[in-house]
Amino acid sequence: MLGGPVATETTTAPGGAQPPRPAPPESDRILRVRDLQTYFVADEGTTKAVDGASFDLFAGRTLGVVGETGCGKSVTARSILRIVERPGRIVGGEILLRRPNGDQQDLTKLDPDGREMREIRGGEIGLVFQEPMTSFSPVHTIGDQLTEAIRLHSTLGPKAVRERAIELLRLVGVTRPEGRMSEYSWQLSGGLRQRAMIAMSLAGEPRILIADEPTTALDVTTQAQILELLRELQAKTKMAILLITHDLGVIAEMADDVVVMYLGRVAEQGPVDRIFHAPQHPYTQALLRSIPSVNQTARVRPPTIAGSIPHPFNRPAGCPFYPRCEHFMKGICDEIVPQRILLEPRHSAACHLRDAEVISRRG
Questions:
Q1: What's the confidence (pLDDT) of residue 8?
Q2: Where are the domains of the chain?
Q3: Which of 4, 295, 314, 322 is most buried (CB neighbours < 10 A)?
Q4: Which H or E run contains 233?
């Protein structure tokens, strides 16, 4: 056990984190998620897949969402798009989207199958899945599927739709775009399929792009190309990107801001340079310690996080991370749910070790 706050750790980001950028103006905020709760209710029990997550998305910036498998990253993305599969449903919180006319629209109040939500999904908010092979129909050509997506979100005529589809394929770096229009997804390489998937996600000219593990299934070279493509597209369109991944190297390379999730809750969030060089939550620190280093001794395994994520039906009381935390404080961490502590502007952590009142009582 620990009698006081953990000392700040300094960690070198893999590949080097991006230089810090100024805080974005409030006028650039496109999406505000507040206390989002998405539960899966079944006869066996309730799974709190997302349990009070809050964060903001800003135009021209990338928010990286990181955490182990089962921490609620993908369910958070699906909640924003209102495509959570049954028996999952949003039971609380707000998802406030700033519409092009400046109005705030709470997506949780919309019918998931209604016309307005369908127009937003694929129009104002695009989605890139992890494995494009499961997203494309194997019996329809890439061109047919891409032109259909364009027709759904535009009033262009048939000729203009085809020209726009070819333009999108060329924009994302697909070679011979005219010829690819008549090909099927299974005829393309993994990298080309992912590029075509990105082209489809851009069909509605979205202001937000949700990329859910967009490079996990790709080799290292293709992964680098896709990440560079996303950066170039963001620079051209100023769209906000919500990047979901378990790869901290990708986060260091791509993100401006980071949300670290654990068991459906936000453990820590802040600018990427603060998260990598001054992590304040024990879970964030443990994740960063587990990154392999080129300076590591040969044949020596990197440190790992003790234990595993608990079963959804056996969530611990108090702090969800306490059973795996080396700084566990009995009577506090196992009984009281930690609240978000603002450490610096835009940097916060939900940890009792950062709560001066808790520490003073402990002392």
A1: 40
A2: 134-205
A3: 322
A4: helix 220-237
